[in-house]
């Protein structure tokens, strides 16, 4: 990435403002010595703004950047001296959003240890599989998961919240030096269609990844930011990386509650919110506070925006919504801003600076504008492969996302869905997302999901699952007639099934395998 662009963006976002020469020198030395790992990012923030509040937990705990780094270093020293954890080991982190999660991940990177961010929604059986496949040396978990970890091998050490605090409090003095190898962050894929896979995340090599994001999403140094997206997920972890780089004050709640989130945004005067789309949808289901929180940015990622959600949200909270499309494997691919979302409410936007985006056919050739193709992405943060040794298809330095999409005449990306989700019914290619977006605009519908199911006559057919707002009713034939009015006849779902809610994982993605169980 070209230096003038980096300097201009960092200046625009307030990261190159004058400061104490001693602190600035210490900040730069931290990055030079520790790099752009999470440990390096926290060290540079503590060097420049040691007394600034780094984290505010919902239970009232507030830690400055100096305190947060001190606690992470204490935990690292205790893990090394008391538990024998060393560079190259892997530890599992089964925690919700709170300061202890950040301290644990930073402690791992200080030691050159790989941190496996475990999805809090995994079952005991899935957790056992992850522990085995990732060869965990240690598991750090919140107290609420005590019963879920009982079935893990007895020889796997576990730290609950009390034990973690004892490690921090009882740390012996000592120095920490940059490890011989970088500790990797391993993020588990969503597992919506099968067993989650571990994906190795690269460590940034400079300002490029940060600049790519904050150039398009107007976050600034020392903002106050609430991270509602789970930090174990790629998007929540990216939010943490950005916040530490910006020396932001981070507000965290263990669980998402729309009313509590709005109250916290107002109480702490947050400038920005990182969330997943279903959280934004839930915010619209509670009365907006008066006055509104002073949000300048609401950044979402992790799943597709339901049809009509973007303009509805911006009509209430202002043109502050930013939609990032990416994945665990490619990090980011495109970003849609408020103007893009006003123009095309479900768009994933355009690729940011330094990112290549191509729609390719099955032979790896570009498809014409407006035609559906496989989405391939190139940037400096492509994943390093799965921990199993598997990877993904590449073409000319571009990585396959596994999604299908198209570019419209204005260059905006429209994602049609996973390649695996496309169904063929009576010879016609169908994308469930198009029908989902339409159904989500019905005033009675709270949330909608459409899947393909086997059909003896047509091969496959569409099945719609609808969760309605309390007190609302809909007739299945009226739903089919509504779709028939806007879309081709082969897009009309033959099955319309009403459910209380859609099954989702901890990051808000609909678990289609659970819906298919309806059909046995």
Task: State the main characteristics.
520 residues; alpha/beta; 8-stranded mixed beta sheet; 6-stranded mixed beta sheet; 24 strands
Question: How is this structure best summarized?
Answer:
A hairpin with a 4-residue loop joins β1 (53-57) and β2.
List the helices and strands and how they pair.
Blueprint: H1 3-12, H2 21-34, H3 38-48, E1 53-57, E2 62-64, H4 65-83, E3 90-94, H5 99-111, E4 114-117, H6 124-133, E5 138-141, E6 158-159, H7 161-169, E7 185-188, E8 198-201, H8 208-216, E9 224-227, H9 234-246, E10 249-252, H10 258-267, E11 272-275, H11 277-283, E12 297-300, H12 309-317, E13 321-327, E14 331-336, H13 338-343, E15 356-360, E16 373-378, E17 394-395, E18 398-407, E19 413-418, E20 423-425, E21 428-430, H14 432-440, E22 445-455, E23 459-468, H15 476-486, E24 495-499, H16 512-516
Parallel strand pairs: 1-10, 3-4, 3-5, 4-7, 5-6, 9-10, 9-11, 11-12, 12-13, 23-24
Antiparallel strand pairs: 1-2, 7-8, 13-14, 15-16, 16-18, 17-18, 18-19, 20-21, 22-23
């Amino acid at each position: 990435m070209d230096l003038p662009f980096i300097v201009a963006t960092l200046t625009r976002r307030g990261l190159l403002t004058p400061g104490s020469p001693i602190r600035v020198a210490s900040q730069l030395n931290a990055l030079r010595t520790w790099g752009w790992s999470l440990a390096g990012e926290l060290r540079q923030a503590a060097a420049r703004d040691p007394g600034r509040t780094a984290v505010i937990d919902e239970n009232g705990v507030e830690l400055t950047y100096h305190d947060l780094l001190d606690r992470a270093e204490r935990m690292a020293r205790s893990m090394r001296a008391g538990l024998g954890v060393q560079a190259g080991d892997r530890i599992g982190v089964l925690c919700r959003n709170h300061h202890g999660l950040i301290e644990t991940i930073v402690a791992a990177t200080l030691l050159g240890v790989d941190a496996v961010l475990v999805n809090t929604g995994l079952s005991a059986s899935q957790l056992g599989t992850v522990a085995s496949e990732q060869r965990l040396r240690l598991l750090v978990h919140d107290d609420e998961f005590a019963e879920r970890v009982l079935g893990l091998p007895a020889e796997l050490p576990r730290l609950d919240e009390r034990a973690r605090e004892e490690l921090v409090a009882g740390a012996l003095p000592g120095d920490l030096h940059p490890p011989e190898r970088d500790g990797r962050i391993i993020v588990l894929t969503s597992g919506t269609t099968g067993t989650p896979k571990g994906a190795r995340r690269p460590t940034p090599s400079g300002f490029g990844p940060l600049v790519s994001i904050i150039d398009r999403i107007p976050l600034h140094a020392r903002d106050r930011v609430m991270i509602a997206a789970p930090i174990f997920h790629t998007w929540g972890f990216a939010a943490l990386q950005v916040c530490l780089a910006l020396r932001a004050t981070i507000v965290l709640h263990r669980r998402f509650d729309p009313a509590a989130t709005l109250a916290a945004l107002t109480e702490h005067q947050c400038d920005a919110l990182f969330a997943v789309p279903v959280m934004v949808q839930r915010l619209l289901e509670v009365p907006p506070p008066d006055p509104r929180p002073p949000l300048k940015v609401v950044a979402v990622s992790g799943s597709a925006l339901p049809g009509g959600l973007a303009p509805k949200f911006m009509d209430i909270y202002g043109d502050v919504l930013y939609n990032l499309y990416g994945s665990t494997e490619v990090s980011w691919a495109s970003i849609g801003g408020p103007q893009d979302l006003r123009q095309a409410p479900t768009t994933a936007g355009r690729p940011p600076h330094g990112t290549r985006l191509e729609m390719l056919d099955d032979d790896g050739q570009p498809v014409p504008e407006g035609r559906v193709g496989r989405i391939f992405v190139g940037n400096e943060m492509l994943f390093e492969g799965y921990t199993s040794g598997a990877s993904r298809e590449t073409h000319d330095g571009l990585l396959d996302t596994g999604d299908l999409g198209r570019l419209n005449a204005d260059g905006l990306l429209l994602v049609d869905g996973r390649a695996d989700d496309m169904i063929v019914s009576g010879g016609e290619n169908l994308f469930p997302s198009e029908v989902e977006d339409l159904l989500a605009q019905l005033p009675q519908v709270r949330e909608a999901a459409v899947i393909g199911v086997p059909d003896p006559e047509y091969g496959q057919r569409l099945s719609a699952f609808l969760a309605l707002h309390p007190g609302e009713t809909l007739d299945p034939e009226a739903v089919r007639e509504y779709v028939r009015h806007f879309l081709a006849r082969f897009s009309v779902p033959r099955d319309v099934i009403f459910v209380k809610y859609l099954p989702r994982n901890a990051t808000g993605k609909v678990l289609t395998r659970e819906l298919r169980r309806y059909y046995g």
